[in-house]
Specification:
single chain; 167 residues; alpha/beta; Lysozyme-like; 3 helices; 16% strand; disordered C terminus
C-alpha cells in the first residue's frame, strides 16, 4: 500500500438540478485523458458512496498531490444557475463525515482539505485566499471540519443518520 497523508475533498462541479452518475464521471475523466475516474470515492446525492478507484492506485484528482493522497468527490457543487455553491444534501454530509472518519482511522494523522486549499499561495502570505483559488472546488470550507479529534468527537457538521454505503 502506498503512503497516504492527505485526503482531498472535491465536488463534481455539477448543477444541483442535474445528475452525474459514476459512469458519466468515468466518461468525463477518460475524455480528459485519465485512465478511469481520478477520484477514489464518489458520493452521490442520495448518500451512496462508490469506490471509483482502488486506494492502491495513485489518483488523478489534484496535480502535484496525487502520489500520497485520497480523492473524495461529491456529486454537485453548482447551484441551478451554474454558480459555485455548497449543494451537499443531508445524506451527502453524513456520508462524507463517516467516510472521512474511516479514512482517518486507516490513515491516522492525514490532513483533510478541499481541492481549492491546495492552490498556490500567489502573494506569499502563508494563506490560500479566495482570489488565489485555481477553482472553487469543493464549494464549502473544509478547513477544521475534518480533523481526527472533531470527527471522533462527533463535532463535524450534520448529525443525521448515516445512510448505508455501497462500496
Amino acid at each position: 500500500m502506498r503512503k497516504i497523508d492527505l485526503i482531498v475533498i472535491h465536488c463534481s462541479a455539477t448543477r444541483e438540478d442535474r445528475t452525474l452518475t459514476q459512469d458519466d464521471l468515468e466518461t468525463l475523466h477518460r475524455r480528459r485523458g485519465f485512465n478511469g475516474t481520478g477520484y477514489h470515492y464518489y458520493i452521490r446525492k442520495d448518500g451512496r458512496v462508490v469506490l471509483t478507484r482502488p486506494l492502491e492506485r495513485v489518483g488523478a484528482h489534484t496535480k502535484g498531490w496525487n502520489a500520497h493522497s485520497v480523492g473524495v468527490c461529491y456529486e454537485g457543487g453548482l447551484d441551478c444557475h451554474g454558480r459555485p455553491a455548497d449543494t451537499r444534501t443531508p445524506a451527502q454530509r453524513a456520508t462524507l463525515r463517516l467516510l472521512v472518519h474511516q479514512l482517518l482511522e486507516t490513515f491516522p494523522g492525514s490532513r483533510v482539505c478541499g481541492h481549492r486549499d491546495l492552490s498556490p499561495d500567489r502573494n506569499g502570505n502563508g494563506e490560500i485566499e479566495p482570489e488565489e483559488w485555481i477553482k472553487a472546488c469543493p464549494c464549502f470550507e473544509v478547513a477544521g471540519l475534518f480533523t481526527e479529534n472533531t470527527v471522533k468527537a462527533g463535532k463535524v457538521e450534520g448529525t443525521e443518520a448515516v445512510p448505508e454505503k455501497n462500496v
